[in-house]
């Protein structure tokens, strides 16, 4: 077995590979850019080598620097992770030329299947069903529009060397093709060093289902069931699960056998994924083959017990697969939520900065339910502008789909992140969504269910009352402590009020509290004092803890909290509310206070996230229509087109291409 391997990647996937290598007794080498010198994967590895400046094109994408790091440390093999050089045939060839093993497929497979254009040509020749499209390289916008018109809308614009949603756009018109083509080329060049673009038909009401395959150097290949990846935003996967709630055994077998046939056709070795688009009638079409480990591989590992990274390493060393097709069994259900540094309340724009607090839920298995958290960050670490915004991949496993989803809801409630914006509220909202829970999903789920973006969750009367009861409990704990401290200082006993008013948004009710053997009874009353409902709250929560773990009416509940003005900011199941706790007199006085009116920023275009201005599309004095492109800002390898929200005239332009802007920096000003 290899004695030392180098991981040509960063973040959570580098940490993930290191864990398996350590389990196998293999030494590891990390590489890092200047932005990653204090990264978790650098700390975890046995050795680490600096390879250049923060932009990936000057560090993680430079083949010669990876080869030099291998020679410097004596690494015998390289695991590429995903992204960066993982599907780069030149990289695989360079390793072979230098006598270094590539922990991935053979060069032929990388060349044929790693290139989306060539892979489709190969699949067509092998009589694999593919999505209709134009498989040549498209030269410019004019040709792109012509081809899209011939195929028929909607179409998918895709980077040939792409992955992870980079360089991908769905276009429903000539204008969207024109806008999307250049952005796709630019993103592809920045992310993969390859700006070739192709166009194919976009199948409506599709489900994205992929088959995990494993092959060795001795001609053996198997499929390791499927993953459903239909919950996507901007063609980037957000939530994955295994198995798929849609496939029957007949379709699963047919897709698996076709995936294996395709793998054997290129003598595939290592782990790979054959992706399919599946329509409502379970017809499936080959989309692409990823000749690498997938981001979402943990859900497959959780339901099969197979360590895919270990299998990749063993295959690269020349071992035969020890797993036969008959050995692969589905055990339970697994869900993966991708936790990103992005603001779901601002159209999921990237967020950068320091992780002031990073407290994931505890990993492990309890009562038949498992939590796994693959991450590459730590509390106090920095989320950089240079790389994708993934913070962690939170996974849960249970005996069935419902239990895995329920456990994910609790795990998300328990995941505390401060210092940057993150998408946990959005993920929690999806977990509660009835359509998701039913399994009736397509790749259009997010666009269809959140057409105007995410604006939080409405709790409903019952949950609002439970959060109010929890706030009453927290308030009593704080008040008890204050009474105790002031009583000791003044040597005078103080009596704690038991009559309060709790307000959450426009909801307000009078409550009284009373200690009982079962816990604190919180009783709700109308304005005349008539009893409405009561809840019993029990917890060992103490002031200073940012997560409330307890029971309400003997049902477990986990709530995140912060002290806020006259109460608490509470986060639960995708909702974030301000629970104000006042005495009855303070509540009456508060009703007399005037509301503060927010400043009007409608005449400004503000930078929605920290980023680099790629281009300004208008001039001073130009009249623009609603929907027109105003500017393009790049952050975390994604280009964000900023459009006019109404008809107006450009009065001033405060930024130019190449400027690095902070969030809410003024880009331009308008007049009506």
Question: How does this structure look, described?
Answer:
The protein has 672 residues and is of the alpha+beta class. The protein has 6 domains: 4-103, Rossmann fold (3-Layer(aba) Sandwich), CATH 3.40.50; 132-201, ATP-grasp fold, A domain (Dna Ligase, domain 1, 2-Layer Sandwich); 208-331, ATP-grasp fold, B domain (D-amino Acid Aminotransferase, Chain A, domain 1, 2-Layer Sandwich), CATH 3.30.470.20; 337-450, D-amino Acid Aminotransferase, Chain A, domain 1, CATH 3.30.470.20; 462-590, Glycoprotein, Type 4 Pilin, CATH 3.30.700.30; 604-671, RNA polymerase II/Efflux pump adaptor protein, barrel-sandwich hybrid domain (OB fold (Dihydrolipoamide Acetyltransferase, E2P), Beta Barrel), CATH 2.40.50. The chain has 17 helices and 40 strands. The strands form 9 sheets. The protein has a 9-stranded antiparallel beta sheet. Strand 36 (629-635) and strand 37 form a beta hairpin. Helix 4 (89-97) runs antiparallel to helix 5, helix 7 crosses helix 8 (174-192) and helix 12 packs antiparallel against helix 13 (424-432). 49% of the residues are buried.
